[in-house]
Amino acid sequence: MQAMGMRRAVMSACAVALTGCVTVTTPTKGDPFESYNRTMFTINDKIDQYVLKPVANGYVFVVPEPVRNSVTNFFSNIGDVYIAANNLLKLRIADGVSDIMRVAINTLFGVGGLFDVATIAKLPKHAGDFGLTLGHYGVPFGPYVVLPLLGPSTVRDTSGLVVDYFGNPLTYVSPASVSWALYGVNLVNTRANLLGATDVLADAALDKYSFVRNAYLQRRQYLISGGEGETPDYGEAPLPNYSEEGAVPTASASAAPASGSANTVPGNQYVPPRAPPGFPSFRLR
Length: 285
Description:
The protein is mainly α. 56% of the residues lie in helices and 3% in strands.
């Protein structure tokens, strides 16, 4: 009964979004899919508003903060395995070895990754996925695209989702029901961590779509180049400034974290365990 109610809520949100979408006759330069992107952005936003955000709020209300922090650390530790692999693929040997040491220390001394002992030991947390690896070797962004449920992405980053899926350790957890349970917990926990960010974005950005697009592209470029290089200039919302990897961005005219978009969950972060054919893939960090 509850599942049917949730399904109706999602379908209603999609219907409202579709009826309210406006066709962009002249897409912004560098964003040829803008008409589709804005429609999908609105759909994702409605799904988040009526489904994911209420669930995340309930999760925060019921689960104590120390437990939520341990859940975040647990999935972050799993993600470090794949981040290490990508850093080694990029021949960033020192970063890759550091990531492997993070996994070893947090698994052994952090009770299976529930506590982030590696950060206390001054081992930095890195970011990595196959889209970033492709960018490291010169593959261009390609057009910006908003994926169903996943949110911000590019053609390059979307093409890396298949590799990310098979590189995700949770893909190989058995039985499949355990994989799906872990994925669900991580999804809700991640959305709960972004509650404050989405509230700030809703208040700060005049055009949430443009702000999220620019912020996403700037952060991806920062992670590839370490702060060097340029992202597509759309001449619209100001880009946030990432002074440190993973830091909360600031902008000259608005302030909202790039990851805290109105799109259900941040793009390019999740891969669901053993998704059935045709089901969209997510990637765990």
